[in-house]
Design brief:
This protein has two helices and twelve strands, in the order H-H-E-E-E-E-E-E-E-E-E-E-E-E. It is mainly beta.
Amino acid sequence: MNRIFLACITLIFSFSVSIYSQNKKEKKEVKSFKIKSITETITEIENGKEATRKDIYTAFDKNANIIEKESYKKDGSLKHKETTRYDSKGNKIEETIFDAAEVAPKPEKNVKHVAKYDANNNKTEDIEYDGSGRLIHKMQYSYNSKGDKVLEVEFNTDGKLIKKTIYIIDSKGLRVEKKEYDGANTLLTDRKYQYQF
């Protein structure tokens, strides 16, 4: 009876995990059942014949974070893969994403994101690399003493500034203004926020 119950829970959970995100309830289930991985298979009927194949594979660390997610094409080859590493505080510090080439001219995609955090778990840097390790994109973030993001800076592949965004926060912690500048520090947009209480 317990195995049937666990199998039902796993089946229901695997469907919900395959929606790409992981909520607190799902994480709690993975942790309480000590689930290390879930393999989702699909049976399709074509011309009256059943064919079963692996569709999605998801692996978890001891904290129930998704550390690997794979999805497969009908022919069984890998379609998409994400691997993720976390720091001791549960912050995502590295994510590698692979997408197989579908139909020409769409090429294969292989990128890696590396993130850094401050002592308050605010993301301070997000760097994207291509499959050969070359810089594609870099973002840096700054925060005020209350943890509100006040600056966002974007760099291109050469490390050249291409965009800067400044957030003005009021004494209540509400964003009241957002200013965007180009790489030459020319103001592009100035967005203001008004609140009614």
